[in-house]
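#struct-pred
JK: can someone run the complex with cytidine-5'-monophosphate? inputs below
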Amino acid sequence: MTVTVRAFAKINLGLYIGALREDGYHDLHTVYQTIALHDVVRVSVGRGTGIEIQCADPRVPCDKSNTCFRVAGRVLDALDAIGKVTIEIEKRLPVQGGLGAASSNAVAAMIGLEHALRKPLEQRVRLRIAADVGSDLPQFVVGGTVLGVGRGEEVYPLADFASTAVVVVTPEIGVSTPKAFGDWDRLTHLGASDRLLEVGRVLSAWLVSPNTGAPALGRSRAGSPLLDLVRTGIENDFERVVFPQYPELRDIKGALQRAGAAYVSLSGSGSTVYGLFRTRAAATKAADRLTKQGLRAMATTTLTRQQYWKKSLVAGG
Ligand code: C5P
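RT: done, structure tokens with the ligand placed:
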């Protein structure tokens, strides 16, 4: 049996970097938001043993360094299962694009493998495996709007926003995340921990605001737009080190603003730049305009947690 899973992308609604830790990671605060753009991951289990990764895109490693490989091994161990696992990745999202594609692929492989084996993992085990394999994975075990703290692996589901229109621009630039963190350290001379206090105050004020009030957490905030959060002035610290190196990304930010976006930001360490729009029609129009300017622009929407899980498994796949 082959199980087909949509591996959805994420964007970051603000990302604040703290000090370099002794373990080589940085503390950070971010809000992750899943969006409808996705790769497709097919998982099958047959007789025998071993894990095989297949991907037609030469930029995706098919050896042990692939996060899907590492997750699949951990899932087999946790479920005490044996079999020959084949994971096929159909790449649609950019590689090293700041959309979390590799991490999302790995969590999709975990979900697909559980279904193929007909053995579910406990949520806390999923979260542990995801966090062991990479800081960006656990958010995809939750989906929707997710607060990420620690090195990004400590995740807390936030109340969902009504689905919001997004335009994603994905230039042909791969940005190395470890290098971007190193550049941040050089820029801030390792003295950046006050960034986390600052964003803590902003997020805390937003969470208890009348629109997003704590009592509303846990149910959908239909009609209260995501734009409330971005109006707090949240920023992505990576822009300060990535834009000077790739000025074309700053130009793309300007182009999205001119095309009518209500909020524009780099996603993760880039190279993707996204814009939030008030309506789907405005997003589609902006994507068309940017495409005519020679940019790779796609109109899409954010996904609520419920939509994320409903659309995750491809029926009949
Ligand atoms: O967690 P992951 O393996 O994806 O992280 C890759 C690299 O990115 C780490 O080895 C580290 O250099 C950097 N990183 C960091 N701080 C984080 C997350 C990642 O410095 N919070």
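RT: quick notes.
Residues 101-117 form the longest helix (17 residues).
Residues 213-224 have pLDDT under 50 and may be disordered.
JK: thanks, will look after standup
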